[in-house]
Sequence to fold (245 residues):
Amino acid sequence: VEVGAASTRATVREGATLLQGSNGQLLRGPDESAEIRADGLLKGPTKNERNLIANSDFAQPLAGTWQVSAPTPGSGDPPASVTLANSTSGLPAVRFQSRSLDYNEARIRQDLNLNVSDFTSLHLQVDVLIHSQNLFNCGDKGTECPVMLRLVYLDEAGNQQQWIQGFYALFSPSVGKTYCADCALPRPVHEPLRPNEWTNWQSPELLGYLRLVERPMSVLLYAEVTASGHSFDSEVSQVQLLATE
Fold:
């Protein structure tokens, strides 16, 4: 049972539960969830998988759900731009653009602060498009990707950890890195994409993976999409973090 200001959500793993609301009763079985809203109305049942990201399709303005950051680079060049517009796929997307001689970055972040200890699976999926970049791979340290996904969380000991996945479209076998050189082992490998082509990318099951590498997720603090480098032009759409309880 998860209690919040707007609703109370109950999830059944095994057996059944009967919920009573102002609009009647609702019987739920295994692998089903339902909500009692603040006004007393029942909503559901639904399957236990749900998307944890609000405004994940960018159908609404970013303000109120996503925090936008684009600091001015040290060279004094203009900061990267973060715009919300219909993409070439016809769906709303966030576009990151930079024209800089120095390091530049832009990001959108959504605070979650969710205890995921009782979740059974967690997947991240997103539509990604890279128009251009001028650094090979993801830069000298493997951290300057035109698109990077990041989940920041607390492990079971209360230590802050992160999971990242980068994407790039300009490859070189000798210049720049295709992995995060400063990240903890095992280092995540970034994924090459075809330029100017949308890719629907899906992560592996993350809770099991993080347990396997001995960095288990306990509290998910925030999700973030970052674009960085010098000059880059990239888009993301349909950012979904799908959890099964």
Summary: The helical segments are 206-212.
